[in-house]
Design a protein that fits this description.
The protein is an alpha+beta fold. It is 50% helix and 17% strand. It contains seven helices and five strands, in the order H-H-E-E-H-H-H-E-E-E-H-H. The protein has a five-stranded antiparallel β-sheet with strand order 2-1-5-4-3. A hairpin with a 7-residue loop joins strand 4 and strand 5. Helix 1 runs antiparallel to helix 2.
């Protein structure tokens, strides 16, 4: 557009009427360009908003129907702020769990590993006779408090733990006994 304007200004010195026509054409082309660009930007933003809405809906649906138990905690208070049905089944709770402290629900579960930045609980957690390996994903909340929120994924590993215990119990133990003076040892033993 700058080059077209320069040509129109140069032609103004030679043919003022032609220059005015060129300026008019440049103005129309520029106006059309702005209109097309603005329309394209609006369509792109609408498309992005629709895609984000679809992604948010898919994310919520995925978490609600996730096959593993999932819970979301506020890390500063250790309160449960969201959970899915599998988490309720896992804990055996029969009431709503919102604003319940995780330590009240699972007393032996320690969350210090999350604050240390680890993504996996260092040991398995036992709940109602079942064992779970716990994975965490921590993020900041979008509210003004900027509280840490952690999503906990509970993967059942009961069969693996039982297999591991059965394997370790089935191993033969070998020991070597070394006696320095067998005759002295046998003197104090009655037949």
């Amino acid at each position: 557009f700058v080059i077209l304007l320069i040509f129109a200004l140069i032609s103004f010195a030679f043919h003022p009427a032609l220059a005015l026509i060129e300026l008019g054409v440049v103005a129309l082309v520029y106006f059309q360009f702005q209109q097309t660009t603005s329309k394209r930007n609006r369509e792109m933003m609408r498309s992005i908003e629709n895609m984000m809405y679809d992604v948010n809906a898919a994310t919520k649906d995925t978490l609600m129907h996730f096959p593993l138990p999932v819970s979301v905690l506020k890390m500063d208070t250790n309160e449960i702020i969201w959970y899915n049905d599998q988490f309720v089944s896992m804990t055996g709770a029969h009431e709503h769990l919102f604003e319940t402290h995780l330590s009240d629900l699972i007393p032996k579960f320690d969350t210090h590993w999350i604050l240390e930045g680890k993504k996996e609980c260092p040991n398995e957690v036992s709940i109602n006779g079942r064992y779970y390996r716990v994975y965490a994903n921590t993020s900041r909340a979008t509210d003004t408090a900027r509280a840490l929120m952690t999503t906990l994924y509970w993967m059942e590993v009961t069969e693996f733990i039982q297999l591991q215990e059965a394997f370790s119990k089935s191993r033969t133990a070998v020991s070597l006994l070394l006696i320095d003076n067998y005759e002295e040892l046998m003197k104090g033993v009655s037949e």
